[in-house]
Specification:
By secondary structure, this protein is mainly alpha-helical. It contains 29 helices and 8 strands. Among the domains are: 171 residues; 250 residues, no CATH class; 156 residues, no CATH class. A two-stranded antiparallel sheet has the order 1-8. Bound molecules: protoporphyrin IX containing FE and calcium ion. One of its GO terms (molecular function) is heme binding.
Length: 949
């Protein structure tokens, strides 16, 4: 716009043009002030909005918009500066032009006046807006100052903000001077401010979720602090047979350190706090709390001293300290009041919270002692309670037998108690967040995801590094023998595939509530079909033999499964979960399966017992189940899945495993076990011990376990005969190495080709190499068993079970009547048979056929699983259990996994044509509303098998 002419004609002409266009432009500028009024109104509104807005992302957006408005004004200063330049130009030009042409001179004067006028108006407007701008800047810097987000150190934020403020100050200075010379600097400030804004937003990663997350984490921390209290109290229940529901019931009622309890502690007349049931008559106030701590310590020291009289005495005083009567003082009915104890502990904690500042350390110790004492009391009561319970009516035996073989190991129980607490906390967290205005932009899945990722290691240290499952690091790369629990099998990820790990999810869990409840509604919102109805309609018994494969293939399959997976449940519940209202009256872990009115075997109106698998997740978030055996194919059914299990199975001499020798045929079987609980043939014919607790489930399984045990001892004996200097440990470990390699070799070279087909095993490179080494080891591949494998896919073998097991001599002639599996669950009598023992059963297995791999399952396990011989309808249905287990574990439907496997989703029953027989599809259609709802187990065994060996 402002240009200096060189004084010739053409330039003067240009000059004239330039003047007239400058005039027009100045008019425009003045007219623009109208618009600027508009901008100013916006800016005012923006400043108020910034002040009132509490959502960070909104603040940032407003900040940016309003900064832009400010920049617009700054540009106007620039314009104003231009008008000054133009005025100077004009003055110069007026002189030149006037000397050349008076007329032109006049018009130049007009222009000059014009420019001066415009400048005056603009400057006037700008001066009046100066105040507004200063307010805006102050408000913005205050807004920025309040943003302190996660991930950025305070120093960084402060530096950026103070730089920003300096520039705002300088800018305001410059603006207020509106000096023509200094106004240039405005530009520099503007540029710096712009870049600072960028820097600021970059550094702080300002986005709505950040602030939300900060709030979320604050909340989580608050609740996790609460959780710490729960965990301490929850620990009281660990190591006991206590129902998990009680934990759930008790937890939310506990007062926590971060939230005052709704009931204030009792007060004395002078307003000081009283101990509940205070017998000590102590002075109140701070010194009281310290004295309380001292008293607990004294009593605990006293309590720990040996000598029954002293101990009883101290215990009585201890009990009175916490306001609880001793067992002697109470009737039997008043025992087992752990929840009362916990509530008492809560009261004490609350009391100490209020009064405890003065002697925190000794209070911490007192807490610890109190908890140890309460655990002691709890155990004592449980024992007492169990004794009185045992003298009552004996519950149905079939339940105990099934229960025991599926029961959780102590370490799994410990883990699951913690998981139950985590699950409860998750629900509380989600509940609180949902009531919270902060949760507006987060989906439930996002929240769950965040919860799952929260690092709990500081407040909940993992306690599974113990003698039975040692977790030494670094992994010994040169270790010759595999560990029992799978630790360090994968050197890069030592925890992959370990005993007691969670099962691996391939897809997000499909719980009804997204967290915990078994899937129970169909895609259209109706109830899913009853598992027993599906079992009756789709999986009913049909005598179709497998023409190709022996019964040994089935038996091998079950043992392989026992090597890979075992997801236990709380067996103490099983006897009580068969009443149809047990999920309400007994435990939330009961999910009884109703018997339909037209059931061909069970009594309509009754229910089949079903107990949910124990939870095992180690973090907040949805329920997950654990695997209490090592996921690796490592012969763990022979050796055990932990150091401690392995030890008790060894002879500790010559590298051998313990055995029992049949007095009739002189051959070895598994060693006998002392416990009789679920064993139907004990004490006359005791059940056995092996690396897997399920070993005595039925005689054919005992037999195969025994064969592998014999193989171990055969090799151990050979090794010791040729290596005279080897000691027990070396022979044992070398033998174990050889036997587990044999076992793996059988599985990969013989079992898998029959199950998967030769084509698949070749394509997937599953066959053992004839020479050289496998080069494809991938340390990122997690060998942990997956949910759908354990809960559905590998249960395919249930359809291959035959009801009868032949017993043959070496010439394959029957030596004893067939064993009906329905009458022999947890009964080892036939193993003690002089002729029909292990060897004859194994010969039967290899020379008779298994049942076809299809949807049909023998009534031996579909109606009479664990039934008591002679007691009608005392059994269970393995197939109903499989289906319910899938829902219990939150695995998705058949269709979901079709998609996961890269197969087309079945959009209708019709689209399953070719995948399943027409008749199968019809059957499915009578029970399921939609192809979308088919349970994974049912879907898998309904498919036509691919060609195998
Ligand atoms: C006579 C033979 C068998 C009997 C009596 C039997 C019985 C059982 C029982 C009672 C369960 C527990 C079900 C539950 O509560 O969820 C189970 C689970 C299972 N079975 Fe079988 N089964 C037999 C054979 C097989 C075979 C041949 C296979 C595979 C080829 C197999 C694979 C599985 C698997 C993978 C599980 C899940 C284990 C877990 O993760 O806890 N079973 N079986
Ligand atoms: Ca294993």
């Amino acid at each position: 716009m402002s240009r200096i002419t060189d004084g010739n004609d053409s330039s003067s002409l240009q000059g004239t043009n330039s003047f007239s266009s400058a005039q027009a432009f100045n008019h425009q500028r003045v007219a623009n002030l109208q618009n600027s009024q508009q901008i100013l109104t916006e800016l005012r509104a923006g400043v108020t909005a910034v002040q009132e807005e509490h959502n960070v992302q909104q603040v940032l957006l407003l900040l940016r918009n309003n900064a832009n408005l400010c920049f617009k004004f700054i540009n106007m200063f620039q314009e104003s500066y231009n008008t000054v330049e133009e005025k100077k130009e004009a003055v110069k030009n007026v002189g030149i032009l006037a000397s050349l042409n008076p007329l032109a001179g006049n018009s130049a004067k007009d222009e000059l006046n014009n420019a001066e006028g415009a400048h005056k108006t603009i400057k006037g407007f700008l001066t009046s807006t100066l105040h507004e701008l200063t307010t805006a800047f102050t408000s913005f810097s205050a807004a920025i100052g309040s943003i302190k987000l996660r991930g950025v150190t305070e120093g960084q934020v402060t530096t950026v903000i103070s730089n920003f403020e300096t520039h705002i100050r300088d800018l305001t200075d410059e603006v207020s001077k509106t000096s023509n010379v200094q106004i240039k600097k405005v530009e520099e400030h503007e540029a710096k401010m712009r870049s600072l804004l960028e820097e600021l937003s970059d550094k702080l990663k300002l986005d709505a979720n950040d602030r939300l997350e900060a709030q979320f984490i604050k909340k989580q921390k608050e609740l996790l602090r609460k959780m710490q209290t729960y965990v301490i109290s929850g620990n009281l229940l660990i190591d006991s047979t206590f129902d998990l529901t009680l934990i759930k019931k008790t937890l939310p009622q506990l007062p926590s350190s971060s939230q005052p309890s709704s009931q204030p502690p009792p007060q004395s007349a002078d307003g000081k706090y009283l101990l509940p049931g205070d017998q000590l008559n102590m002075q109140m106030g701070e010194s009281f709390v310290c004295r309380y701590a001292k008293r607990v310590k004294q009593l605990f020291d006293c309590f720990q001293q040996t000598g029954p009289i002293l101990m009883k005495n101290c215990r009585q005083r201890f009990m009175s300290l916490i306001g609880k009567k001793t067992m002697e003082e109470e009737s039997v009915g008043g025992l087992c009041q752990t929840d009362e104890l916990i509530a008492r502990l809560g009261e004490l904690q609350e009391l100490k919270r209020v009064k405890g500042d003065g002697c925190r350390k000794s209070l911490g110790e007192a807490d610890h002692m109190m908890i140890r004492f309460l655990i002691f009391v709890k155990k004592e009561e449980d024992e007492f309670y169990n004794v009185s319970k045992m003298s009552g009516p004996t519950p149905f035996r079939s339940f105990f037998s099934y229960g025991k073989s599926m029961s959780a190991k102590a370490q799994a129980v410990q883990l699951s108690n913690r998981s139950a607490i985590l699950l409860t906390t998750t629900k509380m967290l989600l509940g609180e967040l949902q009531d919270d205005s902060f949760a507006f932009s987060m989906s439930r899945d996002d929240e769950l995801q965040k919860l799952r990722g929260y690092d709990l290691s500081r407040i909940l240290p993992e306690n599974d590094n113990n003698r039975c499952t040692p977790k030494n690091l670094p992994c010994n790369r040169a270790a010759k023998y595999r560990t029992f629990d799978g630790w360090c099998n994968n050197l890069k990820h030592p925890e992959f595939g370990n005993t007691f790990n969670e099962l691996k999810r391939l897809l997000p869990p499909a719980y009804e509530d997204g967290i915990d409840e078994p899937r129970s509604f169909s895609s259209s919102g109706n109830l899913l079909p009853n598992p027993r109805v599906i079992s009756n309609v789709v999986h009913h018994d049909k005598n179709i033999q497998d023409p190709m494969h022996s019964h040994m293939l089935m038996q091998l399959g079950q043992l392989i499964d026992h090597d890979l997976t075992h997801s236990p449940f709380d067996d103490s519940l099983l006897a009580n979960c068969s009443s149809c209202d047990s999920s309400r009256t007994v435990s939330v872990n009961c999910v009884p399966i109703p018997i339909p009115s037209d059931d061909p075997h069970f009594l309509p109106g009754t229910c089949l017992s079903f107990v949910r698998s124990i939870p095992g997740q180690r973090q907040l978030g949805a329920r997950n189940q654990l695997n209490q055996v090592s996921s690796f194919l490592d012969a763990s059914p022979i050796y055990g899945s932990t150091v401690c299990e392995a030890e008790v199975l060894r002879e500790m001499e010559g590298g051998r495993l313990l055995t029992a020798r049949s007095q009739w045929n002189g051959r070895d079987t598994l060693p006998q076990r002392d416990e009789v609980d679920e064993c139907r043939s004990a004490p006359q014919f005791p059940c056995f011990q092996a690396g897997d607790d399920r070993n005595s489930q039925h005689p054919a399984l005992v037999s195969l376990q025994s064969i592998l045990l014999r193989e171990h001892n055969r090799i151990a004996d050979e090794l010791s005969s040729i290596n005279r200097d080897w000691r027990d440990e070396q022979i044992y470990q070398e033998t174990r190495r050889i036997v587990s390699a044999q076992w793996a070799h059988i599985v990969y070279s013989e079992y898998l080709p029959k199950i998967l087909g030769r084509e698949v095993v070749e394509k997937e490179e599953l066959l053992p190499l004839q020479s050289g080494h496998f080069e494809g080891y991938d340390s990122e591949c997690d060998a942990t068993i997956s949910q759908p494998f354990a809960t559905a896919a590998f249960r395919f073998g249930h359809s291959t079970i035959g009801r009868y097991f032949s017993r043959l001599d070496p010439h394959f002639r029957p030596v004893a009547p067939d064993v009906d599996i329905a009458d022999n669950f947890d009964n080892t009598t036939v193993i003690y048979d002089s002729e029909g023992s292990v060897d004859s059963i194994v010969l039967g297995l290899v020379s008779t056929g298994q049942m076809a791999l299809d949807r049909h399952v023998t009534d031996g396990v579909r109606n009479r699983l664990f039934s008591v011989p002679g007691v009608p309808r005392s059994g269970l249905d393995l197939i109903s259990i499989n289906i319910m287990r899938g829902r219990d574990h939150g695995i998705g439907s058949y269709n979901v996994y079709r998609e996961y496997c890269g197969l087309p989703k079945a959009l209708s029953f019709f689209s399953l044509k070719g995948v399943m027989r027409d008749e199968t599809i019809e059957r499915l259609q009578t029970v399921y509303e939609s192809a979308e709802d088919i349970d994974l187990y049912t879907g898998i065994v309904s498919e036509l098998p691919l060609e195998g060996d």
